[in-house]
Design goal:
single chain; about 625 residues; 10 helices
């Protein structure tokens, strides 16, 4: 003790501390220098070859198959680079071949079990994966070679992964599934993206633009179903911990070719497109809310062949009750600010159904042209709305939609087409149709409760276009006798089917028929309660037109209709009570008629007719 105090008194303690700090500094600098020398030494060919040879020997000793590695080095400042890596498989010539792998690393964080990958640059990769009938894979022997025994395992902290820049070039992967009979071939030229957040613990992910070019994908049999089930199970397990948070800036896909075939279900599809781009504002998976700035699909060729036969069993199959989880699902809220289709062709065939001879066959559709410009599309709380700036559609049945612009809405209590302009080679429709109802069920169950407001001006309706969409109408009048007619229509209507106001109706197009009228119609959907009050400004027609429009034997053989006639006046009443005052001009002369007819009592009908037939 005495010597210690003497040592302190002489100031030797201060000197000792300085020496310790000096030695620590020298040691630290030396270690840093050694580390730097080690890093830079890997840039020397001699050191690279030594490390490469030791690594190849180690791997071959572990997996007992051929391994080739041409070069490995540390790139400046913090990247690990391997060139021309080759792993020979046991049952295939090439299990994995990589032309170049450049991984950007934060080495200090790596030592703290946090993989901070500043970049991944993978180029020229070929991988061949096989799953055998017993469920094992052709790379299992590699996993088994590096697996630890249960007694050697010890608890460890989770390995945190942080990704940033990802760049993949010239990648090809094949997967042969001998257990399920699936085959997958994937190739793409390039994939670029930046990962801002990748936190599996919090189930939070954020990605910048995803750019991918030159995808070639061929898929056969049941892989989609199997993969979807596994992915759904994994996503559900993550969501039980934390609701997934996903941020994505945009997707840019170019020159894609995707093919799918399933011989068992006889389902085949091919999707090819030049460009698919999106710009995303917000994705909220928890609230099921999506705000998409724009979507563009350009130069697409889509073809699908399905075998969908409606058997008696499927037709009578009862509707199953929804699961408890389905009842808890939040409705989708979507805002799509811009959606464009440019040069899109779509073909769909249900091979279980024979093609129909006429009209649009919804089991065999072939759209040779689809162009669309849609803005501000909203899907929210059962409401669908938006603005169609441009739509062009051609289908093999003869449908030729040359132009369509409109503001549309379909909501629980209202639906409309406003600023409508619809043009085909023969049809032109404009301007507005508005429907109002208490509930959607009124559209089918209570059509009389639907309030209608329509303003159709200077329009033309081609019967051939109607028959293209509804070919069965060809068997009913007037389509039976006038399948090629084009009606010219101008009208303004308001009210309901129970009380409809005809403010104006102008109709031509069936031979020389002209109708100009106004008035009101009540209970139009119930013939027994039907009533009307019409002001007939003009009703002109030919005898041949009348005979073509009414069923055979409706007009008695002893009544002759003038070859041409024109009627003006008014008429009101019901199907059994008629009051009318008419002036008739015809090829047989002129006449004036005031009539009151009551046919409510059978065999006791009453007729009070005053007619001026002097000029007839």
């Amino acid at each position: 003790m005495q010597s210690f105090y003497t040592f302190v008194k002489k100031g030797n303690l201060k000197v000792s501390i300085k020496k310790v700090l000096k030695y620590l500094a020298v040691t630290g600098i030396s270690l840093g220098a050694v580390l730097v020398l080690l890093v830079f030494s890997l840039r020397l060919p001699v050191v690279q070859n030594f490390v490469k040879d030791r690594l190849v020997a180690y791997l071959q000793d572990k997996i007992h198959t051929k391994v080739h590695l041409e070069r490995v080095y540390i790139g400046f400042p913090n990247s690990l680079v391997m060139e021309h890596l080759y792993l020979q498989g046991k049952d295939v010539d090439t299990l994995l071949a990589v032309r170049k792998l450049d991984v950007g690393l934060d080495l200090p964080k790596l030592l703290r079990r946090k993989a901070n990958l500043t970049s991944i640059d993978l180029e020229g990769t070929r991988a061949n994966v096989i799953r055998y009938k017993n469920g094992t894979f052709n790379f299992d022997y590699i996993l088994n070679a590096f697996a630890t025994k249960d007694e050697d395992e010890s608890p460890s902290k989770p390995f945190i992964i942080s990704l940033n820049k990802i760049k993949l070039r010239d990648i090809a992967v094949s997967f042969s599934d001998l257990q399920q009979g699936n085959n997958l071939r994937v190739y793409f030229k390039s994939l670029d993206t930046r990962v801002k957040t990748f936190d599996m613990d919090k189930n939070s992910y954020a990605v910048d633009d995803i750019t991918m070019d030159g995808l070639r994908l061929k898929l056969h049999q049941d892989l989609i179903k199997e993969v979807a089930q596994k992915v759904e199970k994994k996503v559900d397990s993550l969501n039980h911990k934390n609701t997934m948070k996903l941020a994505l800036n945009g997707i840019n896909l170019t020159n894609f070719s995707i093919g799918y075939g399933d011989e068992n279900s006889r389902t085949f599809a091919d999707v090819n497109f030049k460009e698919l781009t999106t710009k995303i504002n917000r994705l909220d998976l928890d609230k099921n809310e999506y705000d998409i700035d724009r979507v563009l699909l350009k130069g697409a060729r889509i073809a699908a062949r399905l075998y969908l036969s409606e058997t008696k069993e499927t037709a009578k199959k009862p509707v199953t009750e929804k699961s408890a989880d389905a009842g808890k699902m939040v409705p989708v809220q979507l805002l799509l600010r811009k959606f464009q289709l440019d040069d899109v062709q779509v073909a769909y065939h249900n091979t279980a159904m024979k093609p129909t001879a006429r009209g649009m066959d919804f089991n065999h559709l072939q759209f040779g042209k689809m162009n669309l410009d849609l803005e501000n599309f909203k899907m929210q709380n059962g409401t669908f709305s938006g603005t169609v700036n441009r739509a062009e559609i051609q289908e093999k049945s003869g449908l030729d939609l040359q132009k369509l612009t409109t503001d549309f809405l379909y909501a629980p209590q209202q639906a409309y087409l406003k600023n409508l302009y619809l043009q085909t080679s023969k049809t032109l429709l404009r301007d507005e149709v508005v429907l109002r109802y208490k509930s959607l069920s009124d559209l089918t169950k209570n059509p009389g409760n639907i309030a209608l407001s329509a303003n159709i001006r200077n329009s033309k309706i081609a019967f051939s276009d109607i028959l293209t969409l509804a070919p069965d109408l060809r068997k009913t009048l007037p389509f039976t006798t006038y399948p090629a007619a084009v009606l010219s229509v101008t009208t303004k209507l308001s009210g309901t089917a129970d009380f409809l106001r005809i403010h104006n109706l102008q109709l031509t197009g069936l031979d020389k028929t002209v109708i100009v009228a106004s008035g009101t119609v009540r209970n139009a959907t119930d013939p027994k309660r039907l009533s009307y009050d019409l002001n007939i400004k003009e009703f002109s027609a030919q005898a041949k037109t009348v005979h073509r429009l009414v069923p055979k034997n409706t007009i008695p053989s002893n009544i002759t209709i003038p070859s041409f006639f024109s009627i003006r006046g008014w008429a009101k009443g019901t199907t059994s009570v008629i009051n009318t005052q008419l002036k008739i001009s015809s090829a047989l002369g002129n006449a004036g008629i005031n009539a009151a007819v009551d046919m409510r009592r059978k065999n006791r009908e009453q007729y009070d007719v005053k007619a001026n037939l002097q000029n007839l």
